Amino acid sequence: MTCREFISKVEGLTLAELSSADAELLTHQGGCASCGALLREKHALAGAMRVLRSSTNTLEAPAVVEQNVLRAFRHSAAVHPTATRRVPVLRWSDLLGWKGYAAAAAVVAICLGLGLWFAQRSQGTSQQSRAKTEQPAQPDVRQNADTPQLPVQASLSNSNKSKSETHAAASQHAPVATASLVQSEQAQGYTPLMLCDPISCSGDAEVVRMELPATAADGSAGTQMADVIVGDDGLVRAIRIVQQQ
Amino acid sequence: MLTEQTDEQLLTLAMSGDEDAFTALYRRRQGPIYRFALHMSGSPQVAEEVTQDVFVFLAQRGRDFDASRAPLGAYLFGVARNYIRRAMERSFSDALHTTPAEDHADSLIADGDALEDIARGQLSSAIWKAVLSLPEHYREVVVLCDLHESSYAEAAAAIGCAIGTIRSRLHRAHEMLAKKLQSSAAVAPDISGMAARCPS
């Protein structure tokens, strides 16, 4: 046994247990002066504690304390009759047990489910409302090509601005999502001029009625009216020739 | 017979209204609680007050005791510990540093040879003063383990900490006691040599 092991073992014993120390400790302290001194110190301290313990071990509380305690017991028994059932106490340790974790997991799962449900519901509602607002934005050019029914009424001013061949004849500000607009306008006779996907063509767009040289359309002289979808980046998304009556 | 019942059985009977069971439990446990409070505070007044408070608390709140957490003895020491702390905060100057030999001089000097009794009384007084001068968290482990001969596990249950904490606090407390006793002239010569330590 080394001195370190000896110290560790001595310090692991209470003073009362030192009196019954094993032979290995006694053998080591016999050969090591400092460890022997340590053990003697511990024994001396144990002896002093024993003296103090023996001098006070007969002390007790006075009889008046017992009378007061029993009076309190009778009062408590009167206040809390024997038939009173023990009220279950919810302790923090119970909450921290497996029941608490299970309850917390259930609450989190319910909250997540409700959150997803509300998100889906609000998304569906917004899609429906968007569809309702976009539906009348599609001009019915086949029925009335000259006066397209757009959400924002076109303020036609083509007579004033048609001096230039390529100037806009009418400007109709109808900000809508470009990609969805182009896709929907393909069915209305528009010819896409660029590849529009939802990412590259995101943002608003305007339908502009323009007066183009007729040669661009059929090779004849004169001008030709056309509706052009222009994105907010200035690029033309699609074009439709307006059939003049 | 009530004397053959365990503490927990007596408490169960007492909580159902059996005053004899409560009396038996009180008489069995009041001595250790009183001495624990006395050793911790050095004041008989505080010890009486704490003993009364502990058992009044038990009479009123004994239904909350959970035997699966700790034995009733450790539970009572824990309750007493809290009341001692409150009492000593309330009357710190009165409770602390009272010479125990002055309060219990008669009890410290037992019958027998007069000189031996005086020496024993001086030694008890010196060691008690040294214990009382320890910080509270060291003092309570010394009182529980050395004076009440509680095991580390019982002391840990009473104080509410780990066994390793009790062990390390007790070791530190012994070192502090050795230094205090070394400077005390009233202590036996072999105790005054307690400062020596192993080199390795």
Name a few traits of the molecule.
heterodimer, A: 245 residues, alpha+beta, 6-stranded antiparallel beta sheet, 10 helices, 6 strands, 49% helix, 16% strand, B: 200 residues, mainly alpha, Rna Polymerase Sigma Factor, Chain: A, Arc Repressor Mutant, subunit A, 2 domains, disordered C terminus
The SS-based structural class of chain B is mainly alpha
CATH superfamily of the largest domain in chain B: RNA polymerase sigma factor, region 2, helix turn helix motif
Order of helices and strands of chain B: HHHHHHHHHHHH
Helix content of chain B: over 70%
State the domain count of chain B.
Answer: 2
Q: What is the arithmetic mean of pLDDT of chain A?
A: 70
Written description of the protein model:
The complex is a heterodimer of chains A (245) and B (200). Chain A has 245 residues and is an alpha+beta fold. Among the domains of chain A are: 3-56, no CATH class; 138-241, no CATH class. Chain A has helices at residues 3-11, 15-18, 23-31, 33-56, 63-79, 92-95, 98-134, 158-161, 178-186, 214-217, and strands spanning 155-156, 168-177, 191-192, 204-213, 223-231, 236-241. In chain A, a hairpin with a 4-residue loop joins strand 5 and strand 6 (236-241). The longest helix of chain A is centred in the middle third of the chain and has 37 residues, at 98-134. By secondary structure, chain B is mostly helical. Chain B folds into 2 domains: 1-98, RNA polymerase sigma factor, region 2, helix turn helix motif (Rna Polymerase Sigma Factor, Chain: A, Orthogonal Bundle); 99-192, Winged helix-like DNA-binding domain superfamily/Winged helix DNA-binding domain (Arc Repressor Mutant, subunit A). Chain B contains 12 helices and no strands.
Detail the topology: elements first, then pairings.
The complex is a heterodimer of chains A (245) and B (200).
Chain A: H1 3-11, H2 15-18, H3 23-31, H4 33-56, H5 63-79, H6 92-95, H7 98-134, E1 155-156, H8 158-161, E2 168-177, H9 178-186, E3 191-192, E4 204-213, H10 214-217, E5 223-231, E6 236-241
Antiparallel strand pairs in A: 1-2, 2-4, 3-6, 4-5, 5-6
Chain B: H1 7-15, H2 19-41, H3 44-61, H4 72-90, H5 92-95, H6 100-103, H7 105-108, H8 114-132, H9 136-147, H10 152-159, H11 163-182, H12 189-192
Helix pairs in contact in B: 1-2, 2-3, 2-4, 3-4, 4-10, 9-11, 10-11
